[in-house]
Amino acid sequence: MRSCVITVSPAMTDDTFAYLVKRVHARFGEDADCVRVNDADVLGGFQIEFDGAVYDNTVKTRLDQARDVFSRGGGSV
Amino acid sequence: MTEKKISAFLKDRTAAFTPGPVIFRKGTVERVGDGVVHVKDLPGRKYGELLEFGSGVYGMALELTENGVGAVLLDAEDSVCAGETVKGTGRVAEVPVGEALLGRVIDPIGRPLDERELETDLYYPVERPSPAIMDRRPVDTPLETGILAIDSMIPIGRGQRELIIGDRQTGKTAIAVDAIINQRNTGVICVYCAVGQKSSTVAGVIETLRAAGAMDNSVVVHAGASDSPAIQYLAPFAACSVAEYFAERGRDVLVVYDDLTKHAVAYRTMTLLLLRPPGREAYPGDVFYLHSRLLERAACRSAETGGGTVTALPIIETMAGNIASYIPTNVISITDGQIYLESELFHAGIRPAVNTGLSVSRVGRSAQSEAMRAVSGTLRIDLSQYREMAVFTRFGSDLDAATVKMLRRGETLTNLFKQGKSHPYTLFEEVAVLLAYEADTFRDVPMKALGAKVTDYLAHMNAAFPAVAAHMNATGSMDDGTRAELLAAAERYREGTEL
To answer: What is the structure's pLDDT at B1?
Structure first.
């Protein structure tokens, strides 16, 4: 079994998490042992860590991306 | 108006915002110290890959092991902790390139140092292959430095590598800066790469270029003495990538590496901290390859590969005039000639302190303009004979008239080569001075008054032959009739008659 860590917001329901695990198994194989980690900092979405690769689809990362785009220089109001 | 601007700004940025998942490979910091980080795991790691640590600090993977990576940090290590997550970016070190860099001061990874944003979308890797043999053409176009001693006897061509070598405080940077200043109206782009220099020194260079109007077609890449060895290591390669962007688009570029001695020291520091086995003088075994792969990127490109040129002026600092030590001999063997500056000449007031006996340009007269070639043929021989004969005058022996004349002309020529800092000559002025030497225009002028006399002579010649000057400066050519006319004018100046 290979370890797969899924980091989600504590607010994610069990049903939603189960669906996520099903998608992970479809992508990485049934031998992916999925472990749920609750982290309020992610705000929403999920982060999957498997075989040294990280798939970050959290709301926190999206907001960081938005901040980078909106705070880029070269303009004033 | 402000509401409209806010609305337009938000619309523009919203259009640019394309969110999506982020995928990266992950490792963990095992230990960190002395600017080196050891990372555990990190699957798919590649040599030279940029690694991202917390708080935006970057490192470069330079040691791949079975279980992890040894990386050198590009920034201060204070914010990197053991146990921290490391992201593999999948990219190598890159530098922004493009027209937006002209007039700017940046660090080797493209961060602006002149307190303005840098807006460019194009990035080149700092390490790039040099042009292949068939992608090059012979060097045939002069790069005028505006320094008479160099343009007449050690001519540099576009696409050549010419080393500037000498002890500390002998005017190496001054020669390079004068060469940059002389390109201001020629269309040649200049890149000044400062490696391990004091920030105050580089600020002085930038100010000199600005005051001379040369900053608009120049880029400064700065990795200071307080920057990490990794940043200092990257600086010359980044500067070359900036230059190559223009050369691939048909432009001519001059790159100054100031200096490669400090670059070699930074590389040695980095490799010793990575526990690589030290070789001669504790340098790693590939220190020659460090500079050869950099300087091979300076080339005269064929039309098929852009047609532009990259001319390199690397600078090497020697200790006690020893040009036979390790790094100097390495770079001398790589380059296409050297300009050797001597402390004794400098302290004797001969500035630029060029030792014409030990200096050479392997490209030679094919890189000289037609006008300069016509007037500079015997200079080296004259100086060589003067130096040999000058030895005998110390013994106070009786000298015949011809020898006295030779000594006087040699002394005059030596003093004619003296030139003020940041005052490059135009090609016409250089030719005029050498024609004055040929006509013995200054034979009755005391050496102490020669400098002022030359200035007055050049002002007269520029005023009397403006069309000739403009033509010669633009085309580099001089026909026999013009030569005779200018020679006659130099003779009349000596006689004190109207030009």
So the answer is: 58
The minimal CB distance from A65 to the residues B5, B19, B27 is found for: B19
Determine contact: A12 vs chain B, CB below 8 A.
no
CB contact under 8 A, A65 and B2: no
The yes-or-no verdict on residue A29 having pLDDT over 60 is yes
Report how far Cα B62 is from the mean position of its chain's Cα atoms.
28
Pick from B23, B67, B114 the residue to mutate for testing the A interface (most A CBs within 10 Å): B23
Pairwise CA distance, residues B153 & B335, whole Å: 17
Question: Residues of B numbered 240-279 whose beta carbons fall under 8 angstroms of chain A's beta carbons: which are they?
Answer: none
* Nearest-CB residue to A69 (from B2, B16, B119): B16
Report CB contact under 8 Å: A54, B2.
Answer: no
Q: Average of pLDDT values for B443-459?
A: 92
For residue A45, the chain B residue with the least C-alpha distance is B21
Q: Which fold has domain B374-495?
A: Lysin (1.20.150)
Residue with tokens 């001693």: B149
Distance CA A69, CA A22 (A): 34
The answer to whether A10 faces chain B, any CB pair under 8 Å, is: no
Across the range B343-357, mean pLDDT stands at: 94
Between the alpha carbon of residue B265 and those of residues B112, B198, B326, B418, the distances in Å are: 25, 15, 12, 33
Domain map (residue ranges) of chain B: 25-92, 96-368, 374-495
| Domains (range + CATH), chain A | 2-70 (3.40.30)
Conformational region of residue B226, where left means phi above 0, alpha means psi within -120 to 50, and beta covers everything else = alpha
Q: What is the pLDDT of residues B112-154, one digit of tens each?
A: 999 888 888 899 999 999 999 999 999 999 999 999 999 999 9
Q: Which residue of A has its CA nearest to B13?
A: A70
- The predicted-structure confidence for B178-189, as pLDDT tens digits, reads as follows 999 999 989 999
| Topology given in CATH for the domain delimited by B96-368 | Rossmann fold (3.40.50)
Class of CATH domain B25-92: mainly beta
Query: What residues of B act catalytically?
Result: 362
Contact B57, B74 (CB under 8 A): yes
The interface predicted TM-score (ipTM) is 0.82
Q: What is the pLDDT of residues B226-268, one digit of tens each?
A: 999 999 999 999 999 999 999 999 999 999 999 999 999 999 9
